[in-house]
Each structure stands twice: as structure tokens, then as C-alpha cells.
């Protein structure tokens, strides 16, 4: 995440998180550290995984005090090991203490997503199928969580509701059917937008293909039906399979031949990566 992206999309979110943690003052830190003192603390990895969110971690401290110096020995996307020293933060000890939890919350969450994503993406390596995230993200964390998916080797589905057309079961119900939903989307949407529609069986798939959908999402279909759906859609539409996809069950989908597999679990079910700021000392 570069500096322009950070300032345009992330700074206000990070400031909001800091305000959540510090409404008026950090009373604990202020009680033991009454004035400026230069100090340093180490960023330590406590389990193996993929690191992601270093820029966000750094930005937390910079927003508290731009004079804070944050140095990393690794880059986003690197494999990190238990016990490894990943970097250090040097600056006003009061800033190090007050920013610690917020900075770690971001880094642990994003690294957990990147680690979980990498584990699943590795299972799809060489298949030609891309692993996608979804909009099942933590409120006000989407920009960070979707970035972490990319660091882990996944791909981003649409960022938000303004980013693409995806006709799901309730949209189809509101429109009066698959054919009507696709027709209405084609009438309304700019011609540069692809139209994706969710289908639950082969009859719905055939109707979607005949209506001219660009992408068909095979939702909670059996493996046998999905294989047949891929054959029917070949050359007419791209295919995506979805529905409770996790690290534990994705192997059943590897040989189906879909273009995409989407998994909400990447962002809503990945555990954090355990990291810590340790060995704080004055300089």
C-alpha cells in the first residue's frame, strides 16, 4: 500500500481507530511517563506466517508523532518465522505505548488474512483458477483486508456496490427472474460493465447464458453440476463457484475447471497472526 493510497484511503480510518482507543488521553502511559523520553521497542513474530500491513502499522505511529522512526527487516508478502525480529519502532516512549495496540491490531489482522489466503491459494497453484475475496469484510476494514488478500496471493472481487454488477438471489426475485434481471441490468449499466449473476442449478444457468450474462456464479451447487455448468458455459461466460468455501473443503473444487473460486472465509474466518512489541527500553 503506497503513500498516496494510504493518505487517500487509510489515514482517516486509522485516526478513527486511534480515537476509539484514546478518547482524551492514555491515562496509564501518562501516569508512568510524564515527559518526552526517547525509546525503542522491537516487533517480534510469535508464529510462522505471511506478513501484511507493515505500512499501516508504521502509519499508526506516524499519525501520533511524525518524528517516530519505524524500521522493518521484512516486506509485505514475506514468510516470517516464530521468534524472528521483524523490525523496531523508535521515538517518544509515550507514542510507542499509546500506539502499540492499534498498530498490532491492524498488522495481526492483515497478516492473518494474508497467511490464510496463501494457504488456500497454494492449493490452486497451476490450475488456472483464481481465488477471490468477497464483500464479507469487517466494517471500516475493507481497504486493509482486501489488500491483505492480494498480499497473500488472492485476487479482489468487486470492492463495493458501486464497483460491479452482481445479481444475487434477492435481486433475481425482485426483478422477476433470471432473464429479466439480466435484461434490466444490461439496460441500466454502462456498456463497459460486466454482468455477473448467481445461479443455483443448471436450469438457471442455461437461462443466464441465453440472456447474455458475462459471468455466472455457481452458488452451492454439487460438484457434478458444477462440472456440467463449466462445460455449458465454456466460450459463452466466465464461471465462478461460491458457497462456504474454506481451506478445509476447497480441494473438492480444484479440478472442476472454473475461472474463479470466491471465499468469504478469507476475510471473515481467518485467525490473526500472533505478533508482539517487546523489549521496550529508553535510549
List keywords for this structure.
alpha/beta; 283 residues
Helical segment count: 10
The largest sheet is: 6 strands, parallel
What fraction, in percent, of the residue positions are helical?
A: 40-55%
Q: What is the radius of gyration computed over CA atoms, rounded to a whole number of angstroms?
A: 23 Å
Inertia-based shape: elongated
Structural class by secondary-structure content: alpha/beta
Series of H and E elements:
HHEEHEEEHEHEHHEHEHEEHE
Q: Strands of the largest sheet, in order across it?
A: 6-11-10-9-8-7
Strand fraction: 15-25%
- N-to-C span: 31 Å
Mean pLDDT across the residues is: 95
Give the beta-strand count: 12
Give a written overview of the molecule.
- The chain is of the alpha/beta class and 283 residues long.
- 43% of the residues lie in helices and 20% in strands.
- It contains ten helices and twelve strands.
- The chain has a six-stranded parallel sheet.
- Helix 9 links the parallel strand 9 (215-219) and strand 10 (238-242).
- Helix 3 packs antiparallel against helix 4 (93-124), helix 4 (93-124) packs across helix 5 (142-151) and helix 6 packs across helix 7 (178-188).
- The protein is elongated and about 70 Å long.
- The model has no long low-confidence stretch (mean pLDDT 95).
